[in-house]
Amino acid sequence: MAQCVQSVQEFIQDSFVPMVAVLCSEDAERVTRKNNLSFPELLRPFCRLTSEGHLRDPNNQVVVVKGLRISVTGINTRPPQTTELHRLLSQAVSVCQPPEGSPANVITAGDYDLNISDRTVKASVPWYSDWKETLIQLSSSNYYTATTAWFETYRENFLQSMPASEHEFLNHYLACMLVVSSREALPTEQFLKLSQEQHRIQHSGEYTHPKWFIPNTLKYYVLLHDISDGDEQRVDSVYEEMKQRYSTQGCYLLKINSRSDATSSDEQMPDPWSQYLHKTSIHNPELDEESVVNNVVENNIGAEEDGFDPVTRDGVLETHPLQLDQPTDAGYPGDNGSQPVNSAEITGPQKQASMTSHTTTTPRGTCLTLNDHDRIRQFIQEFTFRGLLPHIEKNIRQLNDQLVSRKGLSRSLFSATKKLFGGGKVPEKSIAELKNTAGLLYPSEAPELQIRKMADLCFLVQHYELAYNCYHTAKKDFLSDQAMLYAAGALEMAAVSAFLQSGAPRPYPAHYMDTAIQTYRDVCKNMLLAERCCLLSAVILKSQAKYSDAATLLIKMTSEDSDLRSALLLEQAAHCFINMRTPMVRKFAFHMILAGHRFSKAGQKRHALRCYCQAFQVYKGKGWSLAEDHINFTIGRQFFTLRQPENAVAAFRHILINDSKQSAIQQATFLREYLYVYKSMTQLSGESPLPQLPLPCLHSSQTRVFFGHDRRLAEGEKQAATHVSLDQEFDRDLSQLWRELEERVVAAANRGTVPITFQPSQCCLNSQMDNLKNPLAVVEEPIIVEVVFRNPLKVPLALSALSLLWKFTLKDFSGPHGGTIGETITNEMEAASSKETTALSDIIDTQVIPEFTMSPEETKVARLKLLPHKTGELHVLGVVYNLGTGDLGNSEGSLDSDLMCVRGQQNLEIQGPRLNMTKEEKTSVRYGPDRRLDPVITPPMPLLEVFFINFPTGLLCGEIRKAWVEFVNVSAVPLSGLRVASTHPEFFTFGSATSDLTPVTPTAAEHCSAYKTVATPPSVAAVTLVSPAAFGVTSGDRAAVADIPLTGGVLGPGEALQIPLWLRGPDREGVHEINFLFYYESTEKSTKISHRVLRHTAFICASRSLSVRATACRSNTLHSRERDEKNGSMLVLVDVENINTSEAGVREFHIVQVSSSSRHWRLHKCINPAGDKDSKLASRERGKLCFRATRCRTEEVAAEKYTFADLNLGNEQIVSSTTPCADFFFRRGLPFEPKRGGVASGGASQMRRQSLTAQSVTDDAVTSIVRKCSEVELDIIVLWKAYVVEDNKQLILEGQLHVALQTIGKEACSLSQKEETQEMVLLKFKPDVPPPVSKPSLEELSHLIKTCLHYPESYDHPFPQKSLCMIPVTLMLSNCSLARVDVIIDLRHKTTSPESLEVHGSFTWLGQTQYKLQLQAQEVYLLSLKACFFQAGVYNLGTPRVFAKLAHTSAMCETSQQSAMPALIIINNI
Questions:
Q1: Which of 112, 1102, 1129, 1327 could covalently link to 1066 via disulfide, CB atoms 3.0 to 4.6 Å apart?
Q2: In the beta sheet, which residues pair with residue 586?
Q3: What is the rounded distance in angstroms from the CA atom of residue 1341 to the CA atom of residue 1458?
Q4: In this predicted model, what pLDDT tens digit does every residue of 1108-1117 receive, in sequence order?
Q5: What DSSP assignment string belongs to 941-972?
């Protein structure tokens, strides 16, 4: 908004001023032309009076005239024609633009902060944060609302260019200055000629213009004297003669040109004429917008913009409907060549435009001094006070007298108006009821015109009260005569007069203005007068803070006949909406859009752009996407039209980067416009850096970087290791598992400790990883960057020549102190050209994707490859590509693709994770670095590829399969230290160092057994002692990391190695994910990368096979050898069930061998052999085997070796103490578990064994001693073969199942029970009460003593000869514990079961029937007893009851011991 220093009253007064004509002689014109000015132009800066004037009204009241300005023009000045007027107004508005680079003017309206960039210094409207206070000031302010500078320029030029009309006299001439030079030979005769000429012009009827106010025009005689070239005495004498003839009030001597030559003085004189003659002379080199618009049409960027025809633009029409009712052939003085008048002048904008184009640098007033300025100013004051104002006062009195005499009224018009208003009012007819009498003309002597003439005179001299009364009277007369043009003029000026009256005796009659505007527009069809009326009323309403009424009025005046006027009025209406007490910001924005549209149709591109930009501040970011798209599209077109392609590209960019809701056709239009503008900009800018492209959307945070080469796929039976690829989804838990595996294998390679500098290997980097450190890449190995693009549009996109943009710093890491840094190289220049170049291929090979198409709204990834050939530091900056439209299916596709294809780039800027460690970081928002795109290229490293041969995908539970693994070094560097770690170490083995590796090829081993077999018939178990260390097991733990033997410890470049691999199917059915991590190092230890890893994930589907259940129970016999070794035997029952459901084609299982492995026990003999044939189990069949187990020899136990005992049920013995049977036995156990700080199972058993040696008398010691009696550490290995029919071929599968016997009498199973899901643990705030000390159970206490009866199985006795049969029986008591035990033996019968009575019949024990003994640790005690029988029969001798307790536990009662199995004896009678 521009600041306006005038008040509303001053503005209206300056709009209607007394008009004075000038008629100069040729000599007088020549005198003024020395200053490059005409006489009217010479007077123009001094036409405002600096002092007050006075006159008296018809009632003899003094009227004070303040700040009066007069308009002095040449008598032959003609107003411009309508078409010329519109052209000049359009030019004036075009020149007046907001200054660029001015400080931003931010205004606050409601919730919006709007930036209005113009010349506003301070506006009297609520546009600042303190808008309420401004509103209060506004209500009492005398200043009208500030408007835009271009609107004020338009309004001023419009009002000054209004042609004279018959229905009003405000712009008719009141006086005429006759100017003669003092150099004339006879000045008085020249004055007479000029006077006669003026009289002829006014009264001859030859000229319709100019218009004269009254017939008796004031003639003021001016003698112009050139001081530098004139006779002073002669001038004085002539002037005295003039005063005698014309009186002192009618003539004046004006002396000017005190300086003869402008160059003779160095004094810089002020130029007050420039601001009046150059209001539109701001030179703008880009003013010629016609050529720009034509260029737009030619370039198809806006040929159909806004739907307007350039022929009908403002100022171009040959005829215009807005011209006044004046004859087109009106005559003006000076039109013909015979006219002696030489003071021709054009008015307002036309004159200013001509001065602008021809005399913009011509100095003015060069012969005038400051004294001359004062003389001119004094001349105007004398003319006004002594000539003009008395003349106006006299005419007011004369008109008043004429009206009174003609009307027969009283002497005063005041009383006349009172009488007129005092009577009954005549009802006024509406505009619709009046007939069209706009063409009615009154004669010049008509009393109605005399009233109007008197009203205009009073208005010009600021006597607004009398003017209002006269206008009101004339209005009623005109309405009664239905002279609508006259009535509208009277209504207009009556309203203005009512507003200008001091003290505001009556409110502003806005309805007068509304009626006048409607009459001008609808009845008289005169839009110029209607527009003037609208401009006056709007400024009055805004001064009264009636912004809503002003906006309504301005909007009503918009029409299709003038785009420029409509645009300016719509813009003012928009500012009215924002100035309301409650700002209507959205209405402001909407009407600014309408104004911008009309500015664009009027050719005012800069103003249109400004309106759209100001409105965009309201629509931006409010979710009105369609409105934003329209505004951005229009702004982009306007910027391009104004030859600002950079701004146009930015505007179009906003349309494309947001999620548009436009249709596909509209989006395609936007894209084509953008590509065209973008290409035009690049052609103008030349060799500039590639600008940023908005499409497609680049999701930088989802960028992934992969370090690795293209691995070979499977070849025949070879299956390549899966490792890491971009096709795999990131799993945080799986990543943590790989990290722990790597830590475990690194620790194994570094003597059990993980180095402090350890960093886990990361082959694929993404946003979920810790990217704080620069990743390490290897020279000559590719780097693949996966970039995620999204097409937000509903139209396809075609990308071509897609590649990465990078910067590389050469660095040699082999030198001291971390290496030497070389030069920095970038491929920006090469990437700017879409042609493939090999300039930098010796440093980094950059892959170029020739075509990359994206479907509508598609998200697609592009994988771009870099291959570094030098070491150093690489920085991936972004992607560069050609962008074009995807609709290339037409026949002209190739041509269009060349035209509508541009090249640009997008930066890859990744924001790191938010820092949240220190207090400062927690209280602020800071982000760490993300260096995944900044790898360090290190020297060469070995590269391993792993292939699996004959690797199965499905196995039976416990099945043993032999496969092969091949290791290939594909790099130029040897590798060493090859190791492997796995989550399932029990799944595979490479065999022990002593294992037989024959056959040496996969083909030779195809039909061979995986086991080492020996032809041996079934017999007593074969025993072998094996150390766990021979199979890589130490301290009772499973082998988590396996070393892979290499020839000479090194695998050279290009070399390959094949070794066997034994696999065992998991014990639990289902799909199992098994992870392998291969670890290897370089032979050079000075590399930046300490080691490398290769991952492999295998999925094995395990099917059911056999279920083995085993139970250990005490033996019922005691052999002589066992007596020496104490407690030396037990029975092992093995129950085998075929649970296979034949889904794998398994016909039957054969149990070929049962082996055992333990440090204390071994299987000795199979009690129930099934002949030479091994056991066969079809589907759902079960079988039971019984074995005798004996303790190992003392020397075997002391060696801490495992004893393997093999009991083959067929003719072939499988050596279980060799690979792979022993390997899988030692690798048995639970799957890999991440370390959680708990105690390992092996550690727990070791602690339990250590606790047994404690000789304390605590409850824990008692429990341990008691439990030890029933503990058994014996592992049963069941080896089987399965016959499978597959593809009409019979295959033999083999496998082994493990059962761990821990406790006597407790069944163990080969299938581990499914773990129950843990329930959620509630949060506890108090410490748990310590659990009570566990006490041994009765079952555990019943195993302290082992009993056994020794007697003859049958006995012959002659009962007829001897009635009593006495047989000696020995009771063996064996202490199974490591402590002393008190034993009580009770021989009395205590049986309630009738079956038992039948069994033992009637017999009795003779002698002592109850004993109390104390047995030492593991002591065997023999007790001799005698049984007495009375008759023959079968008897059960197992009736003795044994009670035992630990000797040192006095508080504990004796516990009944488990009885032996039934001891049957047969008594025969002979």
A1: 1102
A2: none
A3: 9
A4: 999 998 776 6
A5: ---EEEEEES--SEEETTEEEEEEEEEEE-SS
H/E run at residue 830? helix 828-832
Q: Does residue 1079 come out as left (phi exceeding 0), alpha (psi in the -120 to 50 range) or beta?
A: beta
- For residues 277 and 349, give the distance between their C-alpha atoms in angstroms, rounded to a whole number: 9
Q: Please state whether beta strands 1464-1469 and 1354-1357 pair in parallel, antiparallel, or not at all (unpaired).
A: parallel
Cβ distance 1372 to 1420 under 8 Å?
yes
Map tokens 């075609």 to a residue. 798
Residue 1059 and residue 1044: Cα distance in Å, rounded? 9
| Residues composing the chain | 1470
Would you call 513 exposed, middle or buried from its count of C-beta atoms within 10 A (0-12, 13-18, 19+)?
buried
Distance CA 778, CA 723 (A): 17
CB 938 within 8 A of CB 813: yes
d(CA 613, CA 566): 19
**Residue 368 phi/psi, 5° resolution?**
-105, 145
Question: CB burial class (10 A; 0-12, 13-18, 19+) of residue 1071?
Answer: exposed
Q: What is the pLDDT of residue 550?
A: 94
Is 778 within 8 Å of 941 (Cβ atoms)?
A: yes
- CA dist 719 and 716 (Å) reads 8
328-346 residue pLDDT tens: 444 666 654 334 444 444 4
Q: What is the mean pLDDT of residues 402-424?
A: 51
User: How far from the centroid of its chain's Cα atoms is residue 1041's Cα?
Assistant: 46
Q: What is the pLDDT of residues 967-1022, one digit of tens each?
A: 999 999 999 999 999 988 888 998 876 555 444 555 555 557 778 888 777 777 77
Expressed in percent and rounded to 5, the helix, strand and coil fractions of the chain are 30, 25, 40
Which residues are 825's β-sheet partners? 808
Residue 812 in 3-state DSSP?
strand
**pLDDT, tens digit, for every residue of 168-216?**
999 999 999 999 999 888 999 999 999 999 999 988 888 888 889 999 9
Q: Are 1464 and 1436 in contact (CB under 8 A)?
A: yes
- In sequence order, which residues have a C-beta less than 8 Å from that of residue 1029 and are 6 or more positions away? none
Alpha-helical regions (H) of 428-506: 447-460, 464-481, 484-500
Rg (CA), the chain: 59
| Rounded Cα–Cα distance for residues 415 and 558 (Å) | 43
Classify 939 as helix, strand or coil.
Answer: coil
Task: Please give the Cα distance from 769 to 732 (Å, whole number).
Answer: 9
Structure confidence at residue 1398 (pLDDT): 47
Q: What would the two tokens of residue 1339 be?
A: 């079952």
pLDDT exceeds 70 at position 883: yes
**Contact indicator for 1201, 1026 with CB cutoff of 8 Å:** yes
Q: Is the pLDDT of residue 873 over 60?
A: yes
The residues with which 874 forms a beta bridge, in sequence order, are 808
Give, in order, the Cα–Cα distances in Å from 1410 to each of 96, 416, 1171: 133, 160, 47
Relative orientation angle of helices 389-407 and 447-460, to the nearest 10 degrees: 150
What are the residues whose beta carbons fall under 8 Å from the beta carbon of 1014, sequence distance 6 or more? Answer: 1212, 1213, 1215
Across the beta sheet with 251-256, the strand order is 71-74, 19-24, 173-181, 218-226, 251-256
**Segment 379-395 mean pLDDT:** 93
Question: 1354 - beta bridge partners?
Answer: 1466
> How far separated are the first and last CA of the chain, in Å rounded?
144
CB atoms inside a 10 Å sphere around CB 620: 14
Residue 1393 DSSP code: -
Q: How far apart are CA 653 and CA 690, in angstroms?
A: 15
| Global pTM exceeds 0.85 | no
737 neighbors 983 (Cβ within 8 angstroms)? yes
- Strands across the sheet containing 1381-1386: 1410-1415, 1381-1386, 1441-1446, 1455-1456
The rounded distance, in Å, linking the Cα atoms of 1304 and 1271 is 6
